[in-house]
Amino acid sequence: MKINVDWDRCTGMGMCESLAPDVFEVDDDGSLIVHAEEVPEGMESDVREAVAACPTEALSLEGE
Amino acid sequence: MTHLVVVGASLAGLRAVEAVRRDGFDGDVTLVGAEEHLPYDRPPLSKEYLSADEIADPRYREEETFAGDLDVELVLGTPATALDSAARTVAVGERTLSYDGLVIATGAHARVLPGTEDIAGVHTVRTLDDAIALRAALRAEHARRLTVVGAGFIGSEVAAVGRKLGLEVTILEALETPLARAVGERMGRALTHLHRRHGTEVRTGVAVEEVLAENGHVRGVRLGDGTEMATDVLVVGIGARPATEWLEGSGLTIDDGVVADETLAAAPGVYVAGDVARWPNALFTDVAEGTMRLEHWTSAADQGGRAARHAVDPAAATPYETVPYFWSDWYDGRVQFVGIAAGEDIEVVAGDDAQGGPFTAIYRAGDRIVGALAVDMPAEVMKYRRLIGGRKTWDDALELAEQRRRQREEKARQRAEGACT
Ligand SMILES: Cc1cc2nc3c(=O)[nH]c(=O)nc-3n(C[C@H](O)[C@H](O)[C@H](O)COP(=O)(O)OP(=O)(O)OC[C@H]3O[C@@H](n4cnc5c(N)ncnc54)[C@H](O)[C@@H]3O)c2cc1C
Ligand code: SF4
């Protein structure tokens, strides 16, 4: 599963980081760093939760 | 389970119907909403929707999505007026809908100042229609002065927009310290600095006695001490009251929200979600007694999904617990809070709160970290959110704070070196 970020929507809120910190991280300037292009093994449910929790609906998964 | 009815077609209601369809629920789904609008996003209504010259469509989904992908019957523009939880029916206009599972997601209404309903220029911000009206009022050519009653988050956001649009802005707050309940006394003062720094006048401990009108249009307010203040636009941001009026006589327990158990169940087959829901959040019952009701985007979204899943399969219902989260955009900055503001033991672990930020503060209750607040430090609160959710200790939090401090120093050092070469 590939992780897509709609960069126009993401406002660096960090909900995704709090649910899947190995994949998402908000930098000091509020920009989002995505540490993995594909959802790492075993993290599918965390990443799905992160996608659902993003208040700007900036995240989506491809090839679910 | 054949028919799921969801009352309240906003965030929690939308997430409710989406969650069960994603899980493969193949019964009928009906989504009932009092507003004519398709479900839309409220947070922008007190922010970009007012301040930006070009505004984005706040609706979450297209109409076709409901009829198509989601296969949901939309009943919009008519409020539900009664619930019979024994017969399992909901009255909507002329119709009586029978349900097997019900989600109540009717949210909240803005509180108003009694007697001001018919005065032009007096606004609340809860619905899209409210925001359309306020947008026009703030941008009207003759609008020079904005007065905001209530220094809560929504009032504060509107004040910030007013400054951005070049208005003279005054906030009138009844309490001595704004936001004391939401973030504690000291942090309430810190946030007040943010306003003052941006030229918004904040007057605390003042009561609005009367709203003054001329030819049906607001011209000012009279305060408790008799002084009169002129204004062109008056925004009332004194909170919201849960939309439970339609549940009178339903047999549900209503007490500032619909009271539910830890699985969000308010009666057999009836589950609650979002701003209307009051439930015991097991994550905090050891440090804060009783139930909580949140008015936050994240929990409304989350509870919507959970309540609907429980409604279609009550046997599989499990306790719902969450670390509350909200954000608020003031001027060019962002305020973020996670957890609860229980206890007054607060430590500023980064930056300086004296001038209103940037800073990060953490909250202690007993031996636990229970909350974190950040102003303009977007990388911080979510790291504490994990600690709070994991019921970690205060020492764990201090350790994280120290680690973050070192990381920030290291980054600053690298930047400085980069700048020299
Ligand atoms: C201006 C504004 C700014 C905000 N900013 C932020 C923010 O920055 N961060 C944050 O975390 N949260 C913010 N929030 C809070 C967040 O938007 C709410 O928590 C969220 O909208 C709650 O969703 P809900 O579905 O529970 O209720 P609501 O969004 O209130 O929706 C309830 C719906 O139910 C309908 N309804 C009511 N009674 C009936 C009835 N009898 N029958 C049928 N339908 C009915 C209502 O018309 C409404 O459409 C903001 C809210 C507002 C108003
Ligand atoms: S939760 Fe959404 S808005 Fe926030 S950082 Fe993640 S992707 Fe961006």
From TrEMBL, chain A:
Tell me which residues make up the 4Fe-4S ferredoxin-type domain: 1-29
InterPro entries from the UniProt entry: 3Fe4S_ferredoxin (IPR001080), 4Fe4S_Fe-S-bd (IPR017896), Fe-S_cluster_ET (IPR051269)
The UniProt keyword set, sorted, is:
3Fe-4S, Electron transport, Iron, Iron-sulfur, Metal-binding, Transport
Which cofactor(s) are needed, names only? Answer: [3Fe-4S] cluster
Q: What PROSITE patterns does the annotation carry?
A: 4FE4S_FER_2
| UniProt xrefs under PANTHER family | FERREDOXIN
The record describes the protein's role as: Ferredoxins are iron-sulfur proteins that transfer electrons in a wide variety of metabolic reactions.
Quote the protein name from its UniProt record.
Ferredoxin
Supply the source organism for this entry: Actinomycetospora aeridis
Supply the source organism's classification. Bacteria, Bacillati, Actinomycetota, Actinomycetes, Pseudonocardiales
